[in-house]
Every structure is written in C-alpha cells, then in structure tokens.
Amino acid sequence: LIRRAVQLVDPRNEGIAVSELQNWELDQLRLVGILWGTDSPVAMVEDPKGKGHVVQHGDLIGKKWGKVTQIKSDEVIITEEFRDPIENRPITNEYAMMLPEPYGEAE
User: Fold this and answer.
1) What is the pLDDT of residue 86?
2) Which pLDDT does position 87 carry in this prediction?
3) Spatial contact of 53 and 20, defined as CB atoms under 8 Å apart
4) Considering only CA atoms, which of 62, 65, 76, 57 is closest in space to residue 28?
5) What is the spatial order of strands in the sheet that 42-46 belongs to?
6) How distant is the alpha carbon of residue 52 from its chain centre?
7) Cα–Cα distance measured from residue 87 to residue 73, given in angstroms and rounded to the nearest whole number
8) pLDDT confidence of 16, banded at 50, 70, 90?
9) What is the pLDDT of residue 2?
10) How far from each other are the two terminal CA atoms of the chain, in whole angstroms?
C-alpha cells in the first residue's frame, strides 16, 4: 500500500502542518525505493511499523524538521537546519539515506 504522507496539524507549532514521517528519527526510517528519471523523482521510505510513505523534494521528514532536498538515483538527501543557542548562528546538517544493496550484490 502506497500513500502520500498524511499532513497532521501540531497545535504546539501554531498550526504548522506536520507530516506522519516527523514522528520518527531519521535513523529509524529506511529507504526502500526511488522512482528516478522523471522531472519530479520520488522515493519510498518505510517507517518502523512497516508502512510505506512516498516523499518528494521539499517534504518534511524526521523529528528535527528535516527537509528532502535531493533525490538521486541511489540516495535521498535530507537537510536539517538548526540555530546554535549560544552563538545564534545557523547550523545545517545533511543526512544521506541510502538504498540498500540488491540481494546478492553486497561485497
């Protein structure tokens, strides 16, 4: 079953829509497929409960308000932006979610 990530309203964030994938840490999610070679590539991410979610460029993912910034042929890049609480400067972390090796091709 493939569904588009459902948007939920989080009242703590003054009505900002929160995706279902924002209930999980990035390392709890697994990239299971990428539809590549189109103007708008999409990826399939599986949550720890085994539910599949379709994501595209710009979607929010992970508990730290990560955003899908690139979908490549074998990975999805998620960018998280923070503000340093002491120096008040922006900090950007990039996280690469890789497709697993096809069965039998791992070295």
Assistant:
1) 84
2) 84
3) yes
4) 62
5) 2-4, 52-56, 42-46, 30-35
6) 12
7) 37
8) low
9) 47
10) 32
Residue of 64, 65, 68 lying closest to 55 (CA atoms)? 68
In contact, 1 and 52? CB cutoff 8 Å: yes
Is the pLDDT score of 50 beyond 60?
Answer: yes
* pLDDT tops 80 at residue 18: no
Run of H or E residues at 33: strand 30-35
Using a cut of 0.85, tell me whether the model's pTM lies above it: no
Kindly indicate the confidence band of residue 8, based on its pLDDT and cuts at 50, 70 and 90: very low
Amino acid code (one letter) for 35: L
The residues near 100 (Cβ < 8 Å, ≥ 6 apart) are 30, 31, 32
Asked if 39 and 31 touch (Cβ cutoff 8 Å), the reply is no
Got the DSSP string for 55-95?
Answer: EETT-EETTTTEEEEEE-SSEEEEEEEEE-TTT--EEEEEE
